[in-house]
Amino acid sequence: MKKIAIFASGTGSNTRKILEYSTANPGSFTVALIVTNKPIAGVLDIAAEYGVPTCIIEKEEFFRGHHYLPELKDAEIDLIVLAGFLWKIPQALIDHYRNRIINIHPALLPKFGGKGMYGDHVHNVVLEEGEKESGITIHFVDEHYDHGDVIFQARCEVMPGETAESLAQKIHQLEHEWFPKIIEKVVKEEKLH
Ligand code: GAR
Which fold has domain 2-105+136-154+172-188? Predict the structure, then answer.
């Protein structure tokens, strides 16, 4: 059974779906740690509901070079899952967890990625550019924003009259459907050591 850490700063709807999935489909992975930079984040309530330990990280410490590696090692984490985590991952973590950090992005990379591209910002740009489709990308994390190898993509149509809100809803549906299954696939297929 692989142990995953979820890094999340938002409402945590993906975190909830991952926990629901691992509870309903035990065997391949368990959520051993939830890491957040926002003490008020919805993920903390979800963590408490599921009895998952949490780690609250501080911006100053994080950017001064505290990479929280000891906390991750103590929890024996095999895979780090970024589910709405917006800070750049420090090099020390990338080096230690090379090919063992995955991220979900709410668009079809390589388009609409990079610094500042998160949440509704992404959907607004997709709409401004007149895209006919959008979707989700699940990828390995390397030292560049939204850049590592793509593991999985799923698509949805952008309809006439689509708003950032309606698109966000479609994207969240795709994320909730696919992210837990892809995490399971990664922990089963990857040689996570
Ligand atoms: C998700 O839509 C995820 O793709 C996005 O944050 C949202 C978190 O939602 N991540 C990014 O934009 C990263 N660039 P949640 O808190 O409801 O899981």
Answer: Rossmann fold (3.40.50)
Q: Which atom of ligand 1 is nearest to the CA of 172?
A: 2
Separation CA 9–CA 30 (nearest Å):
20
Q: Write out pLDDT tens, residues 128-151.
A: 999 999 999 999 999 988 989 999
The domain locations on the chain are 2-105+136-154+172-188
Query: For residue range 104-123, what is the model confidence (pLDDT) as tens digits?
Result: 999 999 999 998 898 899 99
Find the 120 Cα to ligand 1 centroid distance in Å: 9
Half-sphere exposure of 59 (CA within 13 A, CB side): 6
CA pair distance 172, 37, nearest whole angstrom: 21
Q: What is the dihedral of CA 188, 189, 191, 192, to 10 degrees?
A: -40
Q: Best substitution site from 34, 108, 175, 178 to test ligand 1's pocket, by max atoms within 8 Å of Cβ?
A: 175
Report CA-CA distances (Å) from 24 to 14, 18, 33, 106, 180: 15, 10, 18, 25, 11
Q: Which atom of ligand 1 is nearest to the CA of 136?
A: 4
